[in-house]
Amino acid sequence: MKLRADQTGNRGLPMPLWLQGGLEAGQAAILSAIVVVLPLVGVWATDGFQNRNVDALARLAGQAWLLIHGVPLHLAQVNLGTAAQPGSGMLSLIPLGLTLIPFLLAWRAGRRLARASYTDQLWQAFLGASMVYAAFGTATGFVCRTPDVVINLWLAMTIPLISFGLGMVLGARREAGSWSRLIGVDAVAWLAKTSQHSRWAGSYVGSALKAGFVATMAAVSLAALLLAVDIVWHWTDIIAVYEGLKAGALGGAVLTIAQLGFLPNLVIFTLAWSSGAGFSLGVGSTVGPLGSAVGPLPAVPIFGALPAGQLDLGGMALALPVVAGILAGWWFLREGENHFDEWLSIKIKARWFTAAASTLFLGAFIGVVAGALSGALAWIARGSAGIGRLTEIGPNPLWTAVWVAAEVGIGVVIGYAVGPWLERSQKLREANLDEPALDDEHA
């Protein structure tokens, strides 16, 4: 991006990178705010809010913008139904689906800034963008705080930078093509200076970490598929809740958008449910594969898909993380090298022991990585609605990590053990398919 001196098309002075970063951050902040404001304006225009003042609508939009960035809102007075009940609570349940909006805008900004910068100058653009985005969050928190909704200005300044900064870094990495080009460090040259044993250990650890990521993504994908099947199975119950609300076309559309915003949270809830850890929808409630016990819930249509009572086949869901582990074990066999098994075979001659020990260690390693990632996802997806019993919503991160780690570890051992047989079967099928063509050629 260049500053032009006139309208002739001749380029003038180059735009400073910090200024270009600030402009990109401002665009991302404004566009994400517009996306939040539009549904609220629709509800406001149809008399959906008791307070018809424009400034109240603007403050509500600002509070929603902060919430999708992960900033907790302290509710000093909660409105339940038609009566405002005094009390306090923390609204910290983040709609991760809506958080993707500023993340993707930051990803776009990171790519544009990477194209406009040299490797050793990219920090200038990132610094300008971070300062502008932090200022936008601080100003939003200052303007939108009320006696009923208390906003910590320090959190409003820093927490939005997490999703925005992550999006910019990943976008710049996508444009640069590699981390070495992005940060200006030649990783290959650095690794060449290390010893052979260090390179083997690093290769093993790197492949195991990637396999743990593969297991986590496979488990999340299977959980998303299970959630889709559950929604289709309970579709009539969900429609019945919609009809009972009588929210109208616009109100139903806004309600649907809000539920789509929490769809990634529900996928992670389903992952915890399928692992056996379960999740809660209020203090004292449990939703697990073997049974559910929940109290009164708000009239939200998606809650119609909750499994109720004892589930005869719910235990079968425990196989999903195991299947994800099998895929990760097979992936490691195809893409990685088990240098730990090689080292152990040199030290101990009993092959039956070294093969079993290295496989069990690999399963434990990958299981711990998948469990840690799943626990982090559970921690991000859970939160508090700040209303009555709904101060505990979501899975327990620790128990989710433990259950997923154990089940993925079992799956990795199975997948790594049966992987060679699967590979041989695939090669035999390919050979059988090639035989007729060879016969025809000789004929």
Automatic annotation (TrEMBL):
Keywords annotated in UniProt: Membrane, Transmembrane, Transmembrane helix
Pfam families for this protein: DUF6350
UniProt-recorded name of the protein: DUF6350 family protein
Keyword Flavoprotein appears in the UniProt entry: no
Domain of life: Bacteria
Ribonucleoprotein listed as a keyword: no
Transmembrane annotation, as ranges: 25-45, 57-76, 88-110, 122-143, 149-172, 213-235, 247-272, 279-303, 315-333, 353-381, 401-422
InterPro entries: DUF6350
